[in-house]
Amino acid sequence: MTPCPVRPRLQIPRPQRRGFLTAAAGLLGVSALGGCDRFAASPTGQRALKAGENANLFVQRLLLTPASLAKEFPDSEISPWFKPNGTIEPPDRAYKALAAKGFEGFKLRVDGLVERPQDLSLSDLRALPARTQTTRHDCVEGWSAIGKWTGVPLSEVLQRAGLKPNARYIVFHCADTMEYAAGSDDEAAETEKTAAPGMESRPEGAENQASDSQPAAAEAPTDEGEEVQGTPVRYYESIDLTDAYHPQTILAYDLNGQALPVSNGAPLRLRVERQLGYKQAKYVMRIEVTEGLKGIGDGNGGYWEDRGYEWYAGI
Amino acid sequence: MLSGPDIVETVRRRWMFRHPLVIRLAHWINVVCLAILLMSGLQIFNAHPALYWGAASTFDKPFVAITDDQRDDGTPRGIVTIAGHTFDTTGVLGLSNLNGQPAGRAFPSWSTLPAHQDLATGRRWHFLFAWAFVINGLIYLLYGIGTGQLRRRLIPDGDQMRGFGSSIREHLTLHFPEGDEAKRYNVLQKLSYLVVVAVLLPLMLITGLSMSPGVNAVIPLPDLFGGRQSARTVHFIVTNLLVLFVIVHVLLVLLSGVANNMRSMITGWFVIERKKLPAGSGEIP
């Protein structure tokens, strides 16, 4: 007689079923990881992934006060080489012309939601109260460099301009072209005509700098003078008033006791010390005070933000 | 109709409810979190595949660097440099195939999230699941401490410390405790879980937060490690230790009765095999 596999009721053969479920779950897990990239690309996925940034902003805003300062280092810890990243030499003619003359003709434009728009030369800025801070610059890529920055606190500049009650964000418009957007849409073509009359013969959308205060902006964008299709997309960044009025938020004109080199953002570079490197906009030409970020680039508040990076870069 | 041997067989098996629901859930959520954190972390590492000691990067003298260069004959190779020593890691680290073509990237595409180079999305995955990891870990700790589960699970009993040597021998010969002794974790198990739960995972969180310039302005965490770049290096080293732990953990789960272990972490029920139980004296639970 073959052994009859009678088991007490207590021992329900869960194991086999569970084993199968385990294997199924494992397979699901593997295919889920494979599907992660598809999920991240979907609108739902992007919203879900943004939840982490929102949580970081919320918690850090709870923890950080105006008195929470980024660590300042002794001069002995200054990095021998402050690694320039991103744009190292803006290709823009207008910028090159300014740089050639030691930024003599440079004027920082402050406008938008302000009572008194400003045009400040470098010597105007140097005449304002200054702050020097030796801080660590943390690139989003992972590396750090320590530099000694001297500049005017952004709050000094904003105070002179006087914010209107609905002012919420400070937007930084920079001189360096990052890329050329396809400029074939009607709006761009129209703006070009209004912004630069008499240039209809140029390739469609070759220039669209209605928002740029630099008079020479309508020139050919590259030094070589070659015709490039599309609208130049120059670097832009934004911060809110919490960071704008932080004592360590300065518009730096000196690095390590010397005039800021072109590779590090001459003539003026934003320092927002409690955030990552891409917030530290270089080649700042214009400061625009706004109520929202919708009209800036694709509406996420910065060049890299429009390419997937967090607007709040405190982590 | 019960035949003798079958009764003995059933009597020898004893069911034990080993893992409460909270611990089982926390375990599997942690599996998902750590997998995503690891893969998105490698993506982030790939953006600047070098590690340093100190506050700032010493670009010309990295502690670890994963790059690619060319051999004397001009063929590309992937290299890992650790404290000045160079290792050829072509195919996996530094240089690996991407869509069939050799491409210079520190960690290969099959190990990163997203698979292609995309730091922005990698960061979003990393920070979202860092939150999930922290919340899950807090629930686990609160529950574990509140119910005494943690002490029972992770702190070796006095007699276990005395049997430390024999436990090592058991592991090396792949003999695992049976009977009553299998009701509790063995001493090596407890100690390794304790190190992971109390040291390595918290270290990941603290070194991770050390890299946040925002958090730094409130708590000078990098100083604990000798600077932000040191904290980043420790973050990476502890990642390696956790991967090592997971490999050993999964191997031992496989070797010490995969069905029983998996069932217990899914349903909670674990089977204790009884040694030398006299037939007929059965205590069926």
* Spatial order of the strands forming the largest sheet of chain A: 2-1-10-5-6
CATH superfamily of the largest domain in chain A: Oxidoreductase, molybdopterin-binding domain
- The helix content of chain B, as a percent range, equals 40-55%
- Structural class call of chain B reads alpha+beta
Give the second-level CATH assignment, the architecture of the largest domain in chain A.
Answer: Alpha-Beta Complex
CATH class of the largest domain in chain A: Alpha Beta
What proportion strand of chain A? 15-25%
The computed structural class of chain A is: alpha+beta
Please report the total strand number of chain A as a whole number.
10
Radius of gyration of chain A: 26 Å
Q: Which regions of chain B contain 5 or more consecutive residues with pLDDT less than 50?
A: 1-9, 281-285
Alpha-carbon distance between the two ends of chain B? 21 Å
Describe the strand arrangement of the main beta sheet of chain B, using strand numbers.
2-3-4-5
Mean pLDDT of chain B: 91
